[in-house]
Structure formats: structure tokens, C-alpha cells
Amino acid sequence: MNASVQTLILDFDGTLGDSRRLIVTTMQETLAALGLPVADEAACAATIGLPLVGCFFKILHDHTLAERCAELYRNELFPKNNVPGAVPPFPGVIDTLRQLHRRGLKLAVASSRTTPSLLQLLGDMEVMSLFSSIVSTLDVARPKPAPDMVIKILQDTCTAPTQAMVVGDSAYDIQMGLAAGCSTCCVTYGNGTPDELTSADHSIDRFADLLTLF
């Protein structure tokens, strides 16, 4: 049990929302549209959790091309592909969030998405009212794995680092939490590989398993 934890800081993609297919497909369409080599699913999925330009830079190793890809992805292809239901919550997510909220935990989101995209997806899931703080990559100077998002959430919720736990599916989430001085929990059903998540304090196979920690 983690009686000292008052605030849970949750990643979105790969933790709350199952967006892998939408993201990978849109990344591949973007690369193809610009006549660039199309990365396979594993390579695209390995970038999820970074800001959009960082995702493409990790594949292309060219900042100018990464910027062009991010612009096309964000302004044309993602809005086309992001139809209702394209990013469903993982099993048990909504009920578990409600139970954690009823138990008195403060809930927050730290996501590499932009603010409009993040708010739209949380709104679609009808869970906005459960969160005390929602922080996107646009709200901080440095993206994951820097601790800036967590630090802002700690300030927003008046929480000490030792009273917060960061929950995510990628190494970027775990590194962010550790850099901020928080405890961490990885989810094994998302986009990260087991080797990337060994530094987390806790590991769960289903989102509902969070209830066993509190």
C-alpha cells in the first residue's frame, strides 16, 4: 500500500488511451506523403511519448524534415484520422479513475500531446472532472523525460514529490517521474518494452491493478 501518495500523475497515450494504431498509421502516412522511407510499426511505436517533432526526429535524424512531418501530421492527417472512437480507453480505465477519485486521490495528466488534442480525448472519455491538473507539452519549457510537467502538476496540486506517483508506459514517463523525485509505476500493456521499464518502483499489467496499490 502507498498511504503516503496523495497525487497520481498519469500519462495518456499507452496508459489511459489506446492510441497506438492511430499514431502509428498517421506517422506512416505522413512519411509516405512526403516521399520519405516509411518506418515500421515497432519503430514508430517506440517514439510514442515524445513531442511530435521528437518522434519524427528519432526516425529521420533530421530536424528540418522532422518539423515538416510534424506540421503535416498535426494540421492535416491526424485531424482526418482522429474520428470518434479512434482512441478508446484501455479496459478498466474509466471505472478505475472514478474509484481512485472516490478514495480521495488527486488525479493529474502529463502528456506529450498538445492541449487541444489532450482535452478533446479526455472529453470524449467523459473523465475531465476527475482531474485536478492537466498538463500538455505546450505548458512547459522542456518535454519528457525532463521533470517539468511533473513539477508543474506538483505546484498545481500543492503536492510534495514524495507524495506523488507517476504512472506511464514508456521510459520517458519513468525518467520524468524519477527526475522530479516521485515514485513511479509502469504499465506493461502500452508501448514500452520490459527492458525500458526496469527502473520503475512498481509494475502493473492492467490499469485496474492500481487499485491494489492504494
Helix content: 40-55%
Structural class: alpha/beta
N-to-C SSE string, H for helix and E for strand = EHHHHHEHEHEHEE
Number of DSSP helices? 8
* Order of neighbouring strands in the sheet with most strands: 3-2-1-4-5-6
Supply the number of structural domains.
2
Number of β-strand runs: 6
The CATH superfamily of the largest domain turns out to be HAD superfamily/HAD-like
Summary keywords:
six-stranded parallel β-sheet, Rossmann fold, 214 residues, alpha/beta
What would your notes on this structure say?
- The protein is an alpha/beta fold and 214 residues long.
- 41% of the residues lie in helices and 13% in strands.
- Helix 3 packs across helix 4.
Topology:
Elements: E1 7-10, H1 20-33, H2 41-45, H3 52-60, H4 63-81, H5 93-102, E2 106-110, H6 115-125, E3 131-135, H7 148-157, E4 164-168, H8 171-179, E5 183-187, E6 202-204
Helix pairs in contact: 1-4, 3-4
Brief rundown of the structure:
The protein is of the alpha/beta class and 214 residues long. The protein has helices at residues 20-33, 41-45, 52-60, 63-81, 93-102, 115-125, 148-157, 171-179, and strands at 7-10, 106-110, 131-135, 164-168, 183-187, 202-204. The N and C termini lie close together (5 Å).
